[in-house]
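Field: COMPLEX_INPUT
Field: COMPONENT_COUNT = two
Field: RESIDUE_TOTAL = 961
Field: MODE = joint
Values follow.
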Amino acid sequence: MLNQQGRGGMWVALCFEFASSWIERKEVFLSNLEMESDCSKNEETCPQLLDLIPQEREWYTKRKDGKIHLSSEEKKLELRLGPPGGDDNWSIKLNAKNNRERDEPVISLGYLSSMNNNGKQAPKFPSPEDHHHPVGSVLSPSWTKTHHHDHQQLTNPPFLQFPSTPHQSLPVTAKESSQSCCTKAVNMNAEEKPFSPTANTVAPPNTSLKRSAPGPVVGWPPIRSFRKNLATSSSSKPASEPPHKAANEKKGAEPSAKFVKINMDGVPIGRKVDLKAYDSYEKLSAAVDELFRGLLAAQRDSCAGGIVKKVEEEKTITGLLDGSGEYTLVYEDNEGDRMLVGDVPWHMFVSTVQRLRVLKSSELSALSLGSSRQGKIPA
Amino acid sequence: MFWGSRKTIDMNYFPDEVLEHVFDFITSHKDRNSVSLVCKSWYKIEKYSRQRVFLGNCYSISPERLIARFPGLKSLILKGKPHFADFNLVPDDWGGFLYPWIKAMAKSRIGLEELRLKRMVVSDESLELLSESFPNFKSLVLVSCEGFTTDGLAAIAANCRFLRELDLQENEVEDHRGYWLSCFPGSCTSLVSLNFACLKGEINLASLERLVARSPNLKSLRLNRAVPFDTLQRLLIRAPQLVDLGTGSYIHDPSSEAYNKLKAAIQNCNSIRSLSGFLEVAPCCMPAIYPICENLTFLNLSYAAGLQSNELTRLIHHCRKLQRLWILDCIGDKGLGVVASTCKELQELRVFPSDPFDAGNAAVTEEGLVLVSEGCPKLNSLLYFCQQMTNAALITVAKNCTNFIRFRLCILDPIKPDPVTNQPLDEGFGAIVRSCKGLKRLSLSGLLTDQVFYYIGMYAKKLEMLSIAFAGNSDKGMLYVLNGCKKLRKLEIRDCPFGDTALLEDMGKYETMRSLWMSTCEVTLGACKVLAKKMPSLNVEIINESEQTEFNLDDRQKVDKMYLYRTLVGHRKDAPEFVWLL
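Field: COMPLEX_OUTPUT
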């Protein structure tokens, strides 16, 4: 009963219907992606991305002169997946390309193409077959990695400049190989040292600064504030308990830090201070002054019409403890009351304070304070 | 198949009501999302029948659009600030405000019944509006939120007539003392779960007792520090049906009448499966709870700083059915050995540092972890703060436990190598990712080079969340991860030498992820601007806490904190001054 034409027509109509709603579907898909629970277990379809973990491919970088070679410095940074002194213990599947490694070594990851001055892109490195974009994700492998950094900086468009030292773009080579090699690497015991010593001892120049000092670091260890003051806030054992060995005893003893939040009127960004770093109110006051002086000046700047003066007269914040300054230091104790700082002995203060505030002295009388000095604050 | 008129085709489909009934059986968010993509008709049916929605990032979509899409919304989960906000890396007023959501839902007369929030800023106004706008509101769960006081809680207590659940976990709450509890009207008898352990202030104890007495359905009760031993005993007498108990202060004289009464009361509580609290504790009182230990499946002693290793192990000896254990590191390696030999059903272990800033003194090392891995083959979730870790130990753990879904290791000294071999921990973590094929969440620490990321990219195919700190040597590390981890949704990086090349290599990848956090890395302002310009579907935000307020800084300058996330609604309108939206 159907003629071919009708059937074809119906197909077309249906296709149009779906095609016209493609944009909607894409939106729905994208918004659905946001609504996936963290506990999802099913396979998720996502755009196939470039697989830059090479199995049998190599990665090349083209220098400005088109040649590829490994400088002696780069050789030192080569990470190898074999024991030092050779890779004959490893069944690395090398294809013909990899065998040329001595001459054209595997260098860095990443797509590289040379970019000439008018911005045209040279043909790119061959991409894996399964590379497609179901949701229009943008894959733009067009960054030039140059080793002639100084030259390039003048000619490349500004967004291609990587402002770090040339060493940062220095490729660290890895003998990329098939999975069987990695399997072996992982199965080894620690004693067999899968890496050549150089890889472990060479510290790339741009990383040493940040990672050298394991002193008190902001946000480390990664635990919530609730856990930080645990030792201070829990009560110690009752007197009837026999003393325990030293190893355990220190748990109830002095904790080494107490961080409390501190906010200042007029400054949107709060800070945290470690009260254990000070031993008196005066030192705390000085620290507060230091913390906020700059921020306060910056705030005044921004309020003054957005014209930035790099060097702004920074006023010292004084009189925090006696009500004589523009600002006064108050705190919240472990019962939730707001108190003026300075009334109780320092140690008692440290053990009960939960939070600090630097308020405008003029606004103090408007607040309910639990301190006996309440009536004496100058307006 | 018939290709006749449209009417013929429609008759071959099920009527909407039947489809809706079928969809009712599909509960996972992911599956329902898939259903909605099949065709227009299914999209419509799914849209109107959807009641539960999860939004991992509250800025990915606007309240109005959410409501328009799911007018039948009843249960909403929202997450706000980036995860590192928990560790003070995000300034307070960054964002994540609840109020606009409540306002929009109230205006559209959404029949909200459940709200679960994480890392959001919740004002008293929003709680008040919530309590007044949704007559059937039943459940409020706030995790790691802030911005409200007990006045907001009072509004919830007073106005939500059918409230079943009020669960406050580790929130920063300004405590105006305990009158809020008295705001539950005498007619409120519906409570099933009440958790106020994170509140710091006093509680009206008499109100609490009366509330518990008139709540026959109460299954979960977690008290705060201000609730003393005596009250606990009286509460237990009134609520022997409890399944989940969190004690407040647990200090008394074991020879007293009150202690004996508590012992008796607890023995009557046959249903308790989950125990926590002990915010203040006298070890000599612990034996009172031994009778209920044999049925416990969840034990959380991570706030019980007053308990030492021998007390902890004595307790654990009784807990043979434990599935989840949260504990402080004062249990020590030997104590973990007791856990290993006793708790054969253990699935989740969290060991927290009792002295976080004194790295040299953490009481657990790799030995404890190895013991647990040997004794507890069902272990699938780990959070472990320790003094040191070795590759050999990690390799052993990987062999013993292949079921890890979550593996979070925190060595207190962030760049500590294997102390035995002085090597980075690449091989150890490599073993973990290779062996645990179902790994979804991983946090790294210790001395680590690019090699560990090579392994992660190669093997961690199901990985969804990765946290990195002080690790790697070059951009390659980050690239390995971005390219290899196909399922990656959240990546958070701090203090690593990853820079512009890695960031910009594959910009489309970020559209497949929820968010990326990079702080104190090598990323420059210029690169962030490029990324923002090329990817309109991403919000690239810079958090700038320095004194410089001028926007047009040198593009070569490194940014301190960058947070980017995909979104359907462009720049958010509520960003504070120190957040630059590129």
